Request: fold
Amino acid sequence: MIGWILRTAVLVLLPAACACGHYLIATWSGKRATHFIVPSSQSAVVNPSVAKRAGVSFETFQRLVVGREVIIIDARHPDEYAEGHVPGAKNFHVEAVEDDVTLLTSKIDQMADIVLYCATSECEDSGRLFDIMTQLLDYPNVRLFGGGLVTWKRARLPLEKGPSP
Amino acid sequence: MTDTSRRWINRVLRWSLGVVFVVAALGVPGTKLGFGKIYHPSSFANNIRTYEMVPEPLVFPLAIYLPWLELTTGLVLLAGVWKREGLFVAMTLCVVLLVANMTVLIRGLEIICGCFGEGYHGSAIRESLISGAMLTATVVASVMLGPPTHRRDGGDQTAADSGAAA
Reply:
């Protein structure tokens, strides 16, 4: 019985040690640090009021896109982006940015005015990218268009097709 | 039922459960399932939050720990070492998942379960059925293992082990 308890304890505690090692290695390597952002009360994914505060209305979003006043970022997968996106939008898939934040930081100026969107009001990609940009990378001027591409399509507004340049 | 058939039922169930647990942790990169939750603890933490059961300070530690527990359990079941302990941990995980999904169904919550990789989006009903089936498999596998028989050196030996030795 004691042997059984000891072996079960090892089986339960060994993964805890692995998890600690995983966390430490990832934090030291820095590259994958985005995987370990703890979404807090400031998270747009977790806290709807944050998403609401950082949000832009459809009318504002439309004006910003037409006027090319801001950088529009599409947080969806590159395949989805290639099938159709808001004109002028750049593609930074949240998973790719999580793997290597320099993909984004090397191309987007820290002080740029940015609006993020993804597929629908339900998708999390833009919220996750918002969390990374505001909490980890300290981009101060990031906003969210919560309606997503589906709202844009519903209004029968033009789409651009093709992969990210 | 003969010892051989008991042994084989136990083996097949253990291997099946082992594969499910390893896939749950690692996913299947290159397929629709994609990378598993072990690679994206932050994303998995958001999935755990949708269950509204775990206090916020525990969500992230759990999101890092659970995939490793699943991976270790899966490997132990596949390797056939510490069978009884592996099945016990697997059973506990299945019970926890089943209870969590049942309460989600009762509360009418909409969950995001990336249980088998980033490309997997399961509903509470589907997850309840999967965890229920896995729980049944762990119970049957444990029964097939038979009661432990004590060895002279103080260690435990299962009926299936003694069958294998024979």
